[in-house]
Amino acid sequence: MKHLYFSIITVLIATITFAQDSSFDYSRPGKYHQLLANLEGSWTFKGRRFPLEADSNKVRFDLFGTHVWKSFADGRYFIIDMTFGDEAHKIQMPVQNGKIKEVVGKGVMIMGYDNVKKKFVQAYITNHIGSDIVYAEGDYDSTTNTITLNFEQELAPEMKDKIRELFIFHDRDHYTLEYYHEQNGEYVKDTEVNCTRVKDR
User: Fold this and answer.
1) Contact (Cβ atoms closer than 8 angstroms) between residue 119 and residue 26
2) 7 in a domain, yes or no?
3) Angle (CA) 151 47 178, round 5°
């Protein structure tokens, strides 16, 4: 009985000590998590892909789709389910037998804010080209309402691509994504996507 009593006291002390540990504070969502929380809900998007040529106004092709923002872990992270195109507008996807098949584009992104690093963090997978998980980190500029994320992607051996993503907030119902690829030491915009909230009727 004395041994059981001692064990219970030990566990209680450890629990209280852990609960008072300041590391708990770093798990709490803050103002930057709220910035992402404002995007919860359904969205549509329309965009354009440009050739990787500086100052080019040409459009390679248009793109469109939908995505849904959902809170996870009490607002510490957000999961974004994305659909590109529809049954009438599919993308070409390479498969394991070396051939190509047409599919509706799908992607899943996890986004949050790392309180320790003081960085926005993002992980992304897609059913298009590549087998990697893209991981990006970035900062928020309150003067331009923009999160700037940077990452490196390697879709094939020795084919590394440095990419910069701008996450530009306009208001609660609109934001824009811009993607820039590094070319000869400069970042050239190759994608622009405008997102609009789907409002309840």
Assistant:
1) no
2) no
3) 30
